[in-house]
Design brief:
Length: about 280
């Protein structure tokens, strides 16, 4: 395995990207779970997929747009999708839960239309749906590193404000926290995270890497910061286990990462139950 990493550049890119998404996914996922908006990741991922396909089509039709990476389009559409969810939640104030299924239906419908217009699925679309760490291109690595560092830096700088609007929005307003701007920045960070993660674990699995490590960490810690640290630890471990198992078992890396994350959750549940019984 070590020789494989040392010998092949694509393997080095894969593990580097895997560790980066293993850090940022639960970092944002913790705030998503705390706000009980876990499903919003699905909306952002699916609208991001629409953007990716549109980017690919525009790149083929307009030569000077060909150099723009599809993940940029995915990020933009992901932000628009998340903003649309917020708008719908306010429009349907008494039935705010309608916002997410409405946006999911719209984005899935748009994706199906675009797929049919581009003569169905191709290898790239399949990769975006189910993820493949080994498919990360050298041209994408710099973008992923930059976006990941932006997410990490922004969470560190805005931590108090994000924490405040997550648990007590009224209190944050009294403390002159600009909740509207913080909410908008959070949506951008969420879209950035998902647009990066899609390439590794796919649209259909992206929410799993944001939620499963957080759920595992919640079993071990009650403090918010400690839970974030534990969730990052479990996420990176799941990525490494998924990477290794996908290499040796020749299975899809995206699915392997999510299954590894699920196994970690089950393992912690079993250990916790045994410990509680002994106590």
């Amino acid at each position: 395995m070590i020789s494989f990493l040392l010998e092949y550049e694509f393997a080095q890119r894969a593990i580097m990207v895997g560790i980066l998404i293993g850090i940022i996914s639960p970092l944002i996922g913790m705030f998503v779970v705390a706000r009980r908006l876990s499903v919003i990741g699905e909306v952002v991922a699916h609208t991001g997929l629409v953007g990716i396909v549109i980017g690919a089509v525009l790149g083929n039709l307009i030569p000077f747009l060909k150099g723009i990476d599809e993940s940029i389009y995915g990020m933009v559409f992901g932000v628009l999708g998340a903003l649309a969810v917020e708008g719908l939640r306010r429009a349907f104030s008494y039935f705010s839960e309608l916002a997410i299924p409405l946006m999911l239906s719209v984005s899935l419908g748009a994706a199906v239309v675009l797929f049919s217009a581009t003569e169905g699925f191709n290898a790239d679309v399949f990769t975006y749906l189910f993820g493949n760490l080994f498919s990360v291109r050298a041209s994408e690595l710099d973008v992923i590193i930059i976006f990941s560092l932006i997410v990490i830096f922004a969470v560190i700088v805005l931590y108090k404000d994000l924490f405040s609007i997550t648990f007590d929005e009224e209190y944050s307003r009294l403390n002159r926290v600009r909740s509207g701007w913080i909410q908008f920045l959070f949506i951008i960070l969420l879209a950035l995270t998902i647009s990066i993660t899609i390439r590794a674990v796919g649209v259909l699995l992206v929410s799993g890497l944001m939620v499963l490590p957080v759920a595992t960490a919640l079993l071990l810690s009650r403090g918010f910061r400690a839970t974030i640290l534990f969730s990052v630890m479990f996420s990176v471990l799941a990525v490494i286990l998924g990477f290794v198992s996908s290499y040796y078992l020749e299975i899809a890396s995206g699915g392997a990462i999510i299954v590894s994350s699920l196994l970690l959750l089950v393992s912690v549940l079993m250990v916790r139950r045994v410990v509680h019984k002994e106590v």
